[in-house]
Amino acid sequence: MKPVIGITVDCHRDPDDARTRGKLELNWNYAQAVADAGGIPVLIPPMADMEALAKIIHGWLIPGGDDIDASRFGEENHPKVSLADPARFEGEQRLWQNIAAEMPILGICYGCQFLNVARGGTLIQHLPDVVGHESHSGGTLQDYQIAPDSKLSSVVGADTISGKSYHHQAVNAPGENLKIVSKNADGTIEAIEATDRPWVIGVQWHPERTLQDPPTIRIFDDFVSAAKRFAESQQPGEK
Fold it and tell me: Catalytic residue at 206?
């Protein structure tokens, strides 16, 4: 069976626009990467019934987006933040609270940061203040070292991977039961994974933008394969 992969989307509410009331957005390549790996991508808007959806999907991809409000982790917003619509975080938080612990989750960029904040972690709000440069933004192609004993390393099949970087924020203090499994040479945390769940990985770079790279493809392939196993485990008589 093909697993159903929920992808939460960006939202831009505009109640003053009588024609649209706002927009929902997702870059094409996220859904394409899931479909190419054998999954069925289903887009999830923030107003959806997350309790009902949690019973339907078999995996969750949390894509990139704008910045999470720092009040979610007890800080005031940095002047450089570009805030995501709060409805997005609130919808994703409801989904997080309703999904089974065994469901695979892949968080990308904002998605990595969401996983950290949802588990009580904090973020560096503007990396140039800490690392002294802006090379993490603008699509810089970087090489990342991966902890050899990590889930991510076993998924990729190597201890290094390349990816394109488009962020000015990053994980600071890891949340509960999250382990740092990749760091940039300047100390920036590039990947985290859960130690108490079978397949929860957050990467700070954008693997959906390097789909010609075999190690990158393996991330999506393994994610969808894990979702398929989860789906099969939910079938009657197969638990």
Answer: yes
